[in-house]
Every structure is written in structure tokens, then in C-alpha cells.
């Protein structure tokens, strides 16, 4: 199995796990704060992952076109935290249906951009891995704990 196939397999498996948990809770539960100690809801986590999937899709398209500079604002000191905070403020008022739509659409854009690559460069590998399977895996344990907690309160 080649690297592309391995990454796509890992992404599909990780997506299946995190999306399965998201789909197992109601819209009312998705907007309930408490997913993180900072007060994020699961909907906020979905918007966060969608935002990074969109950035990855754009970066992968640039890599494919040969226009990638090798630099992103997230590479700057504090850049990732700044983007995360800006996106949280921008997206927290979005309704669940909008976030759910973007959750799926951004993944599709990332997969399409990855699939269009002629070769998997180290930058493409890193952007897809970090924005896809690794990112899902990073958030899944907190999501599972949160869902277990809210189910125990039902």
C-alpha cells in the first residue's frame, strides 16, 4: 500500500469514529457548552476542524498548482492559537445545520484536493495528516468523554 492509500485509509477510519460520535448526539447537545474547559461545545469543535480542513484544502490546491510558498500564518509564533481564537469567535454563533454542512463539505474539499495531487510531497503529507486523521484523533477523546458525561446526565 502506498502512502496516499495509507493516508486515505487512516483518514476514513478516523473520520468514521469522530463523525459517528457527532451523529450520535442531538442538535441541542451539540451546542451545549462543556466539550472543553474553555467552554467550547461539540459544535465549536466541528467548526474548528472544518476550518482547518478548509485551510488544508487550500494549501493542497496550492501545492498541486506549484504556488505553495511553504509558509502559512500558523507557522508564525502564536499563529495557530490566534487563528483558532478568531475562528471560534467567528463561528460560535452559527447554527448546528450550517456547521454540520461545513463539517462535511470541508472534509470533501480536503479529500478532493488531496486526490488531485500528482505526488504526495512532504508538505502535502503533513497538511493532510495534521488536518485530517491526526486532528480528528486529537479531538476524539475529549468528545467521547463529553458524550459519556452528557449521557450520564440524561
In short:
The protein is mainly α. The protein contains seven helices and no strands.
Structural overview:
There is one protein chain. With 154 residues, this protein is mainly α. The chain has one domain: Four Helix Bundle (Hemerythrin (Met), subunit A). Helix content is 73%, strand content 0%. It has helices at 3-23, 27-30, 42-65, 79-91, 96-115, 122-131, 133-152. The chain starts with a helix and ends with a helix. The model has no long low-confidence stretch (mean pLDDT 93).
Supply the CATH architecture. Answer: Up-down Bundle
Shape: globular
Radius of gyration: 16 Å
Structural class: mainly alpha
Terminal Cα span? 45 Å
CATH superfamily: dinb family like domain
Question: Largest sheet at a glance?
Answer: none
Tell me how many strands there are: 0
- Reported by name, the CATH topology is Four Helix Bundle (Hemerythrin (Met), subunit A)
CATH class: Mainly Alpha
Q: Helicity level, as a percent range? A: over 70%
Mean of pLDDT: 93
The number of domains is: 1
Low-confidence stretches: none
Element order, helices and strands? Answer: HHHHHHH
Enumerate how many helices there are, as a single number.
Answer: 7
Strand content: under 5%
Amino acid at each position: 500500500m502506498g502512502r496516499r492509500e495509507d493516508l486515505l485509509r487512516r483518514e476514513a477510519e478516523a473520520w468514521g469514529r469522530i463523525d459517528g460520535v457527532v451523529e450520535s448526539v442531538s442538535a441541542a447537545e451539540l451546542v451545549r457548552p462543556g466539550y472543553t474547559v474553555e467552554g467550547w461545545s461539540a459544535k465549536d469543535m466541528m467548526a474548528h476542524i472544518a476550518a482547518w480542513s478548509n485551510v488544508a484544502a487550500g494549501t493542497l490546491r496550492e501545492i498541486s498548482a506549484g504556488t505553495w510558498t511553504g509558509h502559512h500564518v500558523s507557522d508564525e509564533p502564536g499563529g495557530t492559537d490566534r487563528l483558532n481564537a478568531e475562528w471560534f469567535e467567528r463561528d460560535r454563533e452559527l447554527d448546528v445545520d450550517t456547521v454540520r454542512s461545513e463539517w462535511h463539505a470541508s472534509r470533501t474539499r480536503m479529500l478532493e484536493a488531496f486526490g488531485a495531487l500528482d505526488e504526495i510531497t512532504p508538505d502535502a503529507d503533513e497538511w493532510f495528516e495534521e488536518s485530517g486523521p491526526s486532528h480528528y484523533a486529537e479531538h476524539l477523546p475529549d468528545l467521547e468523554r463529553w458524550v459519556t458525561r452528557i449521557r450520564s446526565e440524561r
